[in-house]
Amino acid sequence: MAHTATGPAVTRYSPVSIGFHWMIALSVLATAALGIWLDGLGYYDPWQPRALWMHRAIGTSAFFLMLLKLFWRLYDRKPPLEKALTRFEAIAATATHHILTLAVLVLPITGYLVSTSSGSAVPLAFGLELPALVQVGNALRDGLMQAHVVIAYGLLALVGIHAMAAVKHQVLDGGQTLQRMLPGRRPLGDR
Ligand code: HEM
């Protein structure tokens, strides 16, 4: 196992980072699925209010989980990218991670601003709600709704590319990209 001046080289993400990663992934996918379902439901469908409530509540959780993850990162040691990646793969992976992070923060903000544009708070769970702090006008609300849709589908496409790249490096290239983000005690090789 390789060592650095401060101890053994970090080759896996920490259990807390792994927990954040999969909880965020799950909440983003669930929110997207609910959003797509919502789009197909008529306004008077009895499921519409429930689907909208779940969409907003789970989407808000994705936002706060991402904020918590970023704070956690300040104290956590992140494994460096695998040395076996080409220069292009390393740049693409880093850019994808930054864009995914930004999208998971910006997307819920656009949804929040659309939802509070009429001045009403967004009910979450356990009596919690998001207060209507800013009320945007109709034109801006429509623009934000369009941005919400574009960012949501862009995010889904990027999640697909990110997941396929991780599986390709793990399975086809014999790397450990996916394993680094899965729980396990055994240190991985310094590839
Ligand atoms: C990771 C978080 C989120 C994702 C991936 C996401 C994704 C989506 C998707 C795919 C749609 C359907 C777009 C279409 O095809 O028309 C949608 C609609 C919508 N989203 Fe989100 N969203 C997220 C967070 C939020 C949040 C936090 C809120 C509000 C607090 C919100 C409010 C809305 C609203 C009001 C709509 C329109 C619903 C309707 O058609 O009645 N979203 N979202």
From TrEMBL:
The keyword Zinc-finger does not apply. It is found in: Cell membrane. Residues 12-184 form the Cytochrome b561 bacterial/Ni-hydrogenase domain. Keywords: Cell membrane, Electron transport, Heme, Iron, Membrane, Metal-binding, Transmembrane, Transmembrane helix, Transport. GO terms for cellular component: plasma membrane. SUPFAM superfamilies: Transmembrane di-heme cytochromes. It comes from Rhodalgimonas zhirmunskyi. This is Cytochrome b.
